Amino acid sequence: MLPALTACFIAGLVTGSAFPFIPLTVGSLLTAAAVVLASVSQAHDVLRYGTRLYAALLVGILYWTVYTHHGTAPPFDLWSEPGPIHVEARVVRPVEYSPGRAVLFLRPSFVERRDQAFAVPTGLLRVTWREFDRSVYEGDEVEVTARFHPPTGLINPGGFNYEDFLRRQGVEAVATVSGPDGVLVKRRGQVSTRWMLWNTVDGWRDRIRQSATASLPDPARGIFLGIIIGDRGALSPEVRDLFMTSGTVHILSISGSHLGLIALLSFAVVRRSLVWLPARVLEGMGLFMTPPRLAGVVTAVIVTGYTLLAGSEIATVRSLIMISVLLIAIWLGYRAQLLHSLAAAALIILLADPRSLFDMSFQLSFVSVLAIALVLQRLGEKEHDERPHRWLGRLRGWVIGATAVTGAVTVATLPLVAHYFNQVAWVGFFSNLVVVPFVGLVLVPLGLLSSLWLLLAGGTSLPMAGLQEFLLDGLVAITQWSAQIPYAEWHVAAPSVPAMALYFGALALVAWARSPVWLLRAGAGLVVLWILWWGWSPAHHGADGLVHVAFLDVGQGDAIVIRSSEGATILIDGGAAFEHFDMGRAVVAPFLWNHGVRRIDYIIGTHPQLDHIGGLAWIIRHFPASHYWGIGIRREEPFSVRVRGALDAAGLEEEIAIRGQTVVIDNGLCRLAVLNPARDALLQKDGLPSTFSGHALNNRSLVTLLSCGVHTFLFTADVETEILDLQSDAEWPGKVRVLKVPHHGAKSSLNREWIKHVHPEIGVVSAGRYNPYGHPSHEVIQAYADEGVPLFRTDRHGAVLVSADATSPRWSVHTAVEWTLRPVTLHGSWWREERENWQRLFYRWGVRET
């Protein structure tokens, strides 16, 4: 009963997040009808069971509504205003370190701006400290003066929204500081009784981090820190992609598998060790504690210590709760009920914070554990006439069990992995059979033993560093071998929520159906069909006869995807690529995969600046391309070198685009013409090619015009006023339908006469929220408003999606914000808000995105 009630409670939380009132009304009517039917048919047991399930659903809806509307609204106006803010705060989470930076989560106690104190906010502040010169621990009191702003994210169809992620963590504002004086420590947490333990543990973590940094090379260092103290900052993107391809990326962070294997190993070792104790000791101990209880207590201590050492991250604490519930059941003498323990753990976590339900780690963890529980339950139900006592028989049983568990987890998590990562990691079915036990039973125990030795004996070198480096390099070798299997990296379109619901429904038939046999076969057939369909991921365009142009939200930068009705794909720029976040990997690639695009006909790098071509390196390496256009200027910055290296690896040569060139697509229906740069501009030697100023690079930007019947799209990159003065040139259009506003709306690209000349029907500004340049400028916005040109801005509307029929004047404009569900508030307009959410669902699931 508990698992069923928990499932209904979870359904209530999901419903309450966006559609609380209509389902309540419908559910009440259905319940009333069920009461009438039950009273007529005398099915009182069915009525009682159904009433409990509906009550759990109702509690879930009400709990979400009360929880999310509790408390006062955060003072966003304080953080939105420009200017530095002085904050005194306490570090309330373990500091996240990576090369050259530290990330602090602060609980403010005093806020001041321009000598005026403000009410203390209730949320957390996230401060990135670059070029830090000292360690800061959880519990320390610090001072920070910085320009804070509310958290921002990227809004793209089906994309990950970092703003929502930070909001669920309770983060209210973010800031970045640099240098030794960026963060000042006022008082250490050791002096506070409440924070002494956390401060001490964080100090231990820092000692382990520093000793590993001094003793282990990359990539062994990054993997060691990830699986021992939960510090993933030292992992390079290349290593992460390697583990992602092999389906083993989950072992790089401390997850339920780590804690579960450590708990299993600890419980088994302690229980087996008690056999060696003298009989008199065992008899005396039995008066107070049975061997299973003693093993459970020791296991609880070890697993809790591992959780503290790992920084007590939310995902790790969730795993600890699941294990603790199971250990409590063992202590109370109950037979291990994995499904009930899992349901109880889910209730505890969701009652503490129902927003956890929408965290990717929560979903993956519980689906994985549920699959494991069902498989173990099935295997336990089978009775064998001959129990294998020999080691060969036991080995065979272990292989069968491990294979069944790994297969079940792979199949159960497949839609979630595809939804969040656009990947079917089928290789993980095989690689996890080796990697998971190797990490959980060898690397993690050895790493914990080495860390304990370091903390007790002192020193600066990591004990057994040579052995650990050898084993960690072996893990990397196994992963590399798995990732090199043909078609191991298989990317797919992210399945929709209704499709995943149908998949899990079919999977439930396979898991629980006993008879008739046809029902079991039908469920298995549907599961196979869904997997094949997702693996194929057919293109979502080409049959509608429309041309689609998507201005993606890549923050402060440009990325434009053009998809013709004939299937041709053109990518103009790819956003920026930073140390830990690549717009090409995180934004552009998922958009292409979600629309069934596996190869690109033309990639255009408008000019070699980070915010335009930084993300193209990843795209070129992972998407076959026919042509690459650029302006031929070579720069020696790392991002430009990476793009050239990717071109060399892909066998592509940069084709120099010059005014007058034309690319014809759609058999003459559409053509893409180059309007800038002129040949003379590329031949000018106002400086060495690698030292062109930003102004010179902007004016050499590759400007293109897409003409499809009566529809014209002008992509102006970063050209400035000097180039816009060429409006009298016959090559430039006199009027366009869609204009990509030059240079993110910078004032240096404002030319009112040119705006009158092209007079677009709409303008699109690609800019990042709270960008340091102030784009788009107020003067630019006013200039377009004076001409009656509506502006769509990626910093406010997210991705802007335009569809046009090349054979008629028909066209449409949508934004990603239109499809973003919004919470329903408890005031008079709740009915309108909920109705709008249903309309957004229709747009997301009922019609094609762009």
What does this structure look like?
By secondary structure, the protein is of the alpha/beta class. It contains 30 helices and 23 strands. Strands 1, 2, 3, 4, 5, 6, 7 and 8 form an eight-stranded mixed β-sheet that branches. A hairpin with a 5-residue loop joins β22 and β23 (811-815). α2 (21-41) runs antiparallel to α3. It is globular.
General shape: globular
DSSP strand (E) fraction?
Answer: 5-15%
Structural class comes to: alpha/beta
**Number of separate strands:** 23
What is the count of helical runs? Answer: 30
Ends: how far apart? 44 Å
Give me the oligomer status: single chain
Radius of gyration: 30 Å
Largest sheet: 8 strands, mixed
Poorly predicted ranges: 685-690
Helical fraction equals 40-55%
Mean pLDDT equals: 83
List its salient traits:
single chain, 850 residues, alpha/beta, globular
